Amino acid sequence: MKGLWPVRIGVTGYAVKCMAHDICHLRERLGKRKRFLGFYRGFFHYTAPFHGGGQAVLHKGYDLYISGSDQIWNPAVTNGFPDPAYFLRTAPKGAKRVSLSSSLGDYDFGNAEYNSRMREWLKDYQYVSVRERTSLLPLKQHCDIDAEHTLDPVFLLDEGEWGKYADEGDVRKPYLLVYPMKNTREMMEKGRMLAQRWGMQALCIGDCPGILDRGYIEDAGPAQFLGLIKGAEFVLTNSFHATAFSVLFRRPFFCVTDAHNPGRLRDFLELLHLERYGGGLGDCLGRVERSVDFSGAEAALERYRDKLRSYVSGILGGDGDG
Fold this sequence. Notes:
Elements: H1 13-24, H2 26-43, E1 65-67, E2 97-99, H3 112-122, E3 125-127, E4 129-130, H4 136-143, E5 148-149, H5 159-163, E6 175-179, H6 184-198, E7 201-205, E8 216-217, H7 222-231, E9 234-237, H8 240-248, E10 253-256, H9 262-271, E11 278-279, H10 284-287, H11 295-317
């Protein structure tokens, strides 16, 4: 829960700036932490905390060990080194290991040492699946791993199931929602322009970059994140999961694909025949469409969702041989 500390502490110039921001917005920071903790405690079932690093061994009371999803195998996320926990090195010898839609982001397989360790550790897996199709061939070429492609696990649930967890609150409608992973100020600027064009307000989930800025929701938890996407007239984002939930809730959107890890965003849009609704931030004002045609996406989504569910059924019930 480190990322939910009310006040971030550090000594660099950027860290001091973050600390000053958090102190000025302490009420919102505390509210966000409360909502995240409430969601975790209300819907998740945990074991006792496990500590011990890569050489420690989890107890043998489990039939299956799963790693995934998201960018657990992207060295840009794990400081350039493979994290033993993300490759299930803490599981007992002989344990059944599988991955579920694990992502390597935009890793180009240019790190021979990383590839070698990944090859060694993934040989202990009975099943390997990755979230991006673009990772299949490099995994085979550089690591001799035959992987499958499966959708992100959020698609195991449909719109109705996710809607049960969504809190739309009392936000004034209509609104355009901005959800940035980076370039917050620039994204919100574009969002305000689009909102003005369409006669609605612009809201942004994220830290307010300036004291005088308005429209930022800093205390949203998981339920509010879902609710704000579900109730939006339009979503502008450079986030994979905000794009995924826009598709699930069939909300018109534009996915900015030039921010970070653009390959995984483009791969997802192409998979569902939605590539026309993605592009660079600089030209989004000229390319954004007020509505989105989800008809082609729905058929593709059902096909890939069936494949995902079949894969999950296989790892739960089958022995698997790779």
